[in-house]
Amino acid sequence: MSNSTVADLPGQAPVVMADETVCGSGQRSGGAVDRDFLLPAAIVLTLLAGLYYNIGSRLAVDWYTLPDQSYGLLIPFFILFLLGKERDALLSSKSKPTWMGIWLVAMGLLVLLTGVFGADLFLSRLSFLILTAGLVWTLLGLELLKRIRFMLFVALLAVPLPALILNQITFPLQLYASKFATALLTLSGVPVLRDGNVLQLPAMPLEVAEACSGIRSLTSLLTVAVICGYFIEPTNTRRVILAVASIPIAIAANAMRIFGTGLCVQYWDPDKALGFFHEFSGWVIFLVSLTCLYAVHKMMSLIARRNGRTA
């Protein structure tokens, strides 16, 4: 109940002066969320936790144990940072519940059922994002959903692609990396014959396997580009450019790694080239890729300064 003061003015009726005003939208004028909303929110969060406990815990295990998905460990911390940074803006946003978002809730539940009964991890994980978006739209309104759309996109990066889509991406990357490495080896004077994704070198055949296709560095570099772009780029356009630039950078860097491995196989020691050098070069190439991303950032800053825009 609000504290109030009654003031008696000569010749006038008593006036009640309140120190705070309660808004009809379920929020107080100062922006604090109505306490009556906390109980339904707690119930919804509890139901979500029960539905997705097994799915989420298995995803976390995959992040920790599978090298191709280890980049996902960065995502929850980044989302928590975004929530903390946008906390005041989110709490001050007026909630406008609407039934317009109920179709998205229904879609999320349908995708969840399809993933669970169809034993499809990707659909099960994707359903969480769809259901979360639908609940926010339904319970809080479209305006607040727009405020968290970037967080939902970042969370989508942490969901590994299904094998069907991954295979469609991996094989072309294998062939492209093989062609690029073959061209570089030929220019370096190394006789090489390419047969699909196998490079026939005089010392031994070198196969570009799925693990060497570049998909690991591609997904990791794309995630890093999105996160770094948020911090170092002042506009959404430049953030998108930085994220898109990570794709050709990752592909070219992986081809350079295969080229270096081929040189070591031919002129050094095949066992060491496919052992220590192959693993060590992965870290070196990733650092080179980060350097290339930074070069793209500096280039955009230089262009912006020359055009008289914000750097």
Helix and strand arrangement:
Layout: E1 4-7, E2 15-18, H1 38-65, H2 74-85, H3 87-92, H4 102-117, H5 121-140, H6 142-147, H7 149-157, H8 163-187, E3 193-195, E4 198-200, E5 205-207, H9 215-232, H10 236-267, H11 270-306
Antiparallel strand pairs: 1-2, 3-4, 4-5
Shape: globular
- Write the H/E string, N to C: EEHHHHHHHHEEEHHH
Helicity range: 55-70%
The domain tally reads 2
Spatial separation of the terminal alpha carbons: 50 Å
Number of strands: 5
Helix/strand structural class: mainly alpha
Radius of gyration: 27 Å
Low-confidence residue ranges: 1-33
Percent strand = 5-15%
What is the overall number of helices?
11
Biggest beta sheet summary: 3 strands, antiparallel
For the biggest β-sheet, the strand order reads 3-4-5
Mean pLDDT: 80
Characterize this entry briefly.
With 311 residues, this protein is mostly helical.
Give a written overview of the molecule.
The two termini are 50 Å apart. 67% of the residues lie in helices and 5% in strands. Residues 1-33 have low confidence and may be disordered. Helix 2 runs antiparallel to helix 7, helix 4 (102-117) packs antiparallel against helix 5 (121-140) and helix 9 (215-232) packs antiparallel against helix 10 (236-267). The longest helix has 37 residues, at 270-306. Strands 3-4-5 form a 3-stranded antiparallel β-sheet, covered by helices on one side. Strands 1-2 form a two-stranded antiparallel sheet. It is globular, with a radius of gyration of 27 Å. The protein is built from 11 helices and 5 strands; from the N terminus they run ββααααααααβββααα. With 311 residues, it is mostly helical. It has helices at 38-65, 74-85, 87-92, 102-117, 121-140, 142-147, 149-157, 163-187, 215-232, 236-267, 270-306, and strands spanning 4-7, 15-18, 193-195, 198-200, 205-207. The chain folds into 2 domains: 35-160, no CATH class; 164-306, no CATH class.
